[in-house]
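check this:
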Amino acid sequence: MPPALAEIVEIITIAVRETSPYILAGYALLALCLFVQVFYIFIYIVAPTPREILRSETTYKHIEDNGSVSYAKPLPYWKSTFDQHKKSIREKGDLTDHNVSIEDAEVFMSLVVPAFNEENRLGIMMREAVEYLQREYGAPASEATANGSVRRRQKNTGKHLNGHTSSGNAGGKAEPTGWEVLIISDGSKDKTVDTALEFARSLGTESTGLIRVASLVENRGKGGAVTHGMRHVRGKYAVFADADGASRFEDLGKLVREIKKIEDHDGRGVAVGSRAHLVGSEEVVKRSFLRNLLMHSFHLLLWILTPPATAAIRDTQCGFKLFSRSALPYIIPYMHSESWIFDVEMLMLAEAASIPVAEVPIGWHEVQGSKLNVLWDSLGMAWGLFILRAAWATGIYRRT
């Protein structure tokens, strides 16, 4: 050790020995308070804040019956009526949310598809999705099925295997039928919007109006696009699915059945598509060592940083998640993350609101053309997870 440095260390050592333990404890406490303040300010600065939604982004276009593209029409927004109902309940002195309800659904199933420069892959995914949606939910409730093969009514229940309630059921109001697709072009620079509208036109007049296309002026990220779409769904259930078609869309039936098993008395529930059962499969084993290492490292980080129920989900990142309509007001309005880590925030918000979550194994396959940079996006997800957890823990993000 250099003589000058050794002298400084000796002076500090003597000073510490001669200083009262109470004074040292005070210095330590002062240092801790300073660290906490600096940490809070740091998180406050770097924690992402979603940008304001532009007026044009709250509109959509679809194909008219004559085959032309419609003018921009306003998207429905369930939160407006929810907030009004909540305000009226509060004015009556009820400070709980048990009597606050979201407006009735207009269709049974809403599909939200975030799409950024997906002109080459969107059509394939949409064809698979629409075929399934039309087969399962396009028919009257009395004819709908669980998976396209069973058409008999469950005995003495008035319900059917896909979760619909018969219109003749005296026990309550019939569930809505039908479906919609809301494609969110996330600042795409290619022909994603044209591709979506052309696909809708190819369906003919029967289904063209069920596909709505909204455009974000600037790219927000997958999380921002999904959150934006979920604000404007009309379905009793809302699922989001990646535009690449990697998830087997027919497994939506599994998610519907599982979410109905776990819904609480307010009808709230989340079903998470999971690829965890594929970890030992050939497709995963063939991945590079780096990709598998990063995957397991991220899972470890999730286990350390997230609350118990979220940490117990084995696959938080699968782009195939189903929400009941009643669960949306407790999750979507409080979303902050717009990057790849948004799935985790959704699950954390569901856990904070005591919303039941089911993890459901689904079919999945690798698709070429992924925009994910394995190394940099994995590091970004780890950083995003740390900031997300810190922002909620410090109260920078809050449910207000």
